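Structure ticket #2291
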Amino acid sequence: MVFLSKAACITYFTVIVILLAFAAQKVWKSKNSSLQFKIDDDAQKLEKLLNHSKIFSDREVLKVCKGIYVAIGYALANSILIEAPEGAIIVDVTESVESARDVYKAFRNVSKLPIKALIYTHHHADHVMGAKAFVEESRGTVDIWSYHTLPAEMDRATINRITYIRAMRQFGVMLQPGKHINSGIGPRLNVGPGKTIHYLPPNKFVTQEMETVTIAGLNVTIIHIPGETTDQIAIWLSSQKILFAADDIYKAFPNLYAIRGSPNRDLLQWIESLDKMRHLRPEIVVPSHTRPIYGVDVIQNLLTNYRDAIQFVHDQTVRFMNQGMLPDDIIQKIQLPPNLAKHPYLQEFYGTVEWSVRGVFSGYLGWFNGDPINLNPLPRVERARHIVELAGGVQKALESAQIANKQGQYHWTLELASNILLVDNSQSDARYLKINALEQLAQTQTSFNGRNYYLTCALETNGEIEIMAPPKHVQNSVIRVMPIMFLLRSMTRLLNIERAADVRTTAVFDFDDIKEIYTIQIRNSIAEVTLADLIAITDGVDVRLTTTVDVFKEIAIGERSAVKAYAVGDITIEGGLISFIKFMNYFDKS
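Resolution: structure written out below.
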């Protein structure tokens, strides 16, 4: 096993996306055989969806040119091998150790060079979580490169449970093959029960907007190309005119807003990044999803059309915003110009124009759309109660939902049925109307994200699946590689304000193996984590724990009890064990 620098940290944001892949899969079963709904896919649309799958349906290692290979179809993202004078460079490592091992084995059939370096194009899980597989047979240190902000990006996710739930829906991880066609930019997340993740933190960082470095004896230019993420980088081999474009371009309309939830994606930065690529005039572009593109003229035309589509959505959304229009109205106004709408790289298999419009609006103006109705809206249940009362009661509302369903008004069916269930969750007919509406709406989607989301919600509504917190073994694998500062910081989001109300207390955590000391102070129903060398440790400290990082993590993931660790001397506590347990009980367990 190689030893790698701890200079970089794992982050929740990327982790969240990978966590989505580790839930047990369920088979759809209707609970009421009298309520079976025939799903009638539009044949032409279904054929279009199935044809898109052909891009990555077969596992293959494609030779891009001499010394460069890309593995397609093994996982959600591609993995790329570059042969350099001193060994091999791997660009992106897939989402799980198992899928990465399959890629590694396939790469070994085309190149026997030892792996000398990994490059993470950005922090998303499908690009970083299989890292271990590529270094297991290495001798010596493997350099791992990223943009310098990658660790901070990975620390941004403070709401991992809800993002996990929504990501499970977006990627259709719990859908069976008959329901799941693909995941838009890849076949599917090639993970599940029994799969593992093992991120390795970077030990080499790029800090400039464009920087030429030597990796495994090869001169490589790394270019900062924010778009889908702010830490994203492209790799440019100027001598061969080859550009590795990460996730700023792929064969689908770009995901300018992710329905799983993500920080705002700056479309102007995305456009600028594509313009950087145009300026290079590459002869080959290798994206991290879908397939390579060849030919200067073809690539220039593609990059121009792609960036123009993004600018069109941005500019026209802002134009209508400035006319006082709201998102629901703007989406009726904006459709791509015909020449862009028919472009094969701008089909809405992943992102959509509608979601992008809403993303631009909220990115500039936030959650409030300007309509006073929405300034202090009624709680959902209260609003639902009024709607049902307006319809004449539950039975009348149910009759209206049934009529809407027969007329094919599935959005209205979904809204009525959902409101009925908020008022009276025992209404089984409303539940099955909602399931049918979700199924039918799924069939209207070209975006696999939208299709997967609707179908997964149908499963949830039918009670066949329940998406809970990420599985324990996944959480544990994250904690094992998480820098201790991030682990302590994550505790602040677990403070239970019901138990910690009116509490003011301070604990010191002294990690003697790494010579770092932190304080956590609870006050005003918040918890503040501070490096002890930034403040004076006063007499107000109520408990002081001294231990090692590994022991603390073992306690955190439940492999060891604090009592037993205390008994054998692996932790020492000033203030007493009971005081420490009391302090920790102010926080939720997960």
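Closing remark: The two ends are 31 Å apart (CA to CA).
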